[in-house]
């Protein structure tokens, strides 16, 4: 039966095929690569549409129709991996191994669990973060106690290229759970992160969910706290090891969410988070315009970095004092702005009071808030 399926799909199981022939590029059908290029063009056109709708940036109150969301995922996964998987199965393996694996993976890839509170975060108990903890010199400290009988919204700063230090410190049972054993939370990430195969599963296993507003509301209704990076992908564009910049003055959404739910806001600053990667083209207008276009479509940054492995540094994640907010079902813009200003003041004070103690070098300028 497998042999018949292989013949129907164009796979050859002839034992006399020479090993060298399997790797000859001329055996890979040109039409498969043309199909992949056509698929990329299709995704680019679709990307222009979702950019206008902000569908992949997690900023709608209501989710996309489930059928359309799944269609986008299937189209993305097919274009990204389909032609290569078919070529490898046909000309190297000889059986539809990768194609079958991709079809089976679609069931978990399209389950939309990130919109429903995520999965059980088993990975928080694993020791795989030990290497990062040692390399980043990671520490978690607090400036005040947090009553553990309520939910919080933790605003994490800065985003950096990837906020390794802050996310590991808050997710690991060795750090946050040891400090606050009764506070359980989920972390928010851009919608597009859950379109990337395998990476989405790693996120879900570490307690990360979709950053869309409807998803955040659902998590808080389930009794969890939230950890989010208000500056998001835009803030990542300002990553620089010589100064700390947060993109916050236009970020009203997380404050509005706090007012709608009555959850206290807690500023969190990860000192030296921006020291882990070198960045190319920070002041290049052409490179910056490409990054901004990519960010507007997909909701994630496209950094050009000089190193893949994070540099050795000493990251201290500092949890500030909670900011109490009233519960207002429909807060006005003025009310949201008022509490955003209070939050910015508290975050700035948290940074400036501790920058000489934790920053490397300690001569970094005061925090810049955009």
Structural description of this entry:
Helices cover 45% and strands 10% of the residues. 36% of the residues are buried. It contains 14 helices and 9 strands. Helix 4 (66-93) packs antiparallel against helix 5. A 7-stranded mixed β-sheet has the order 1-8-7-2-5-3-4, with helices on both faces. Strands 6-9 form a two-stranded parallel ribbon. The N and C termini lie far apart (63 Å).
Question: In a nutshell, what does this entry contain?
Answer:
By secondary structure, the protein is of the alpha/beta class. The chain has 14 helices and nine strands.
Topology:
Elements: H1 2-9, H2 19-22, H3 30-53, H4 66-93, H5 97-109, H6 130-135, E1 139-142, E2 152-157, H7 164-171, H8 176-179, E3 185-189, H9 199-205, E4 208-210, H10 213-221, E5 225-228, H11 232-236, E6 245-246, H12 253-261, E7 264-271, H13 285-298, E8 316-319, H14 333-358, E9 368-369
Parallel strand pairs: 1-8, 2-5, 2-7, 3-4, 3-5, 6-9
Antiparallel strand pairs: 7-8
Helix pairs in contact: 3-4, 4-5
